[in-house]
Amino acid sequence: MSFNYGNMMKQAKMMQKKMQKIQQELKEAEFQASAGGGAVKAKVNGEQEVLEVKIDREMVDSQDLDMIEDMVLVAINDAIAQSKQEMQTRMAEVTGGMNIPGMF
Asked: Per-residue pLDDT for 99 more than 70?
């Protein structure tokens, strides 16, 4: 049984193009999460960059800064987790579930 390097290279190039497309789509995607019943909202993109943090004005009046800070952390971390999960799901579609080191 012979191995067809030409076919393998063709498939690798197709996979690379699909992965580049997914990476670009994820870069433009936005993931939003909230904490404290919506009192704190965070939005990140597919590159795990924080785009926006919103805090309900009523929370600021409560003068409980420790709680507000905790909710901000929860919302941001949840939004980042959503982004990472979407990246893993989308890349698995291209790689057929193979774990390729250094890809994501």
From this structure: no
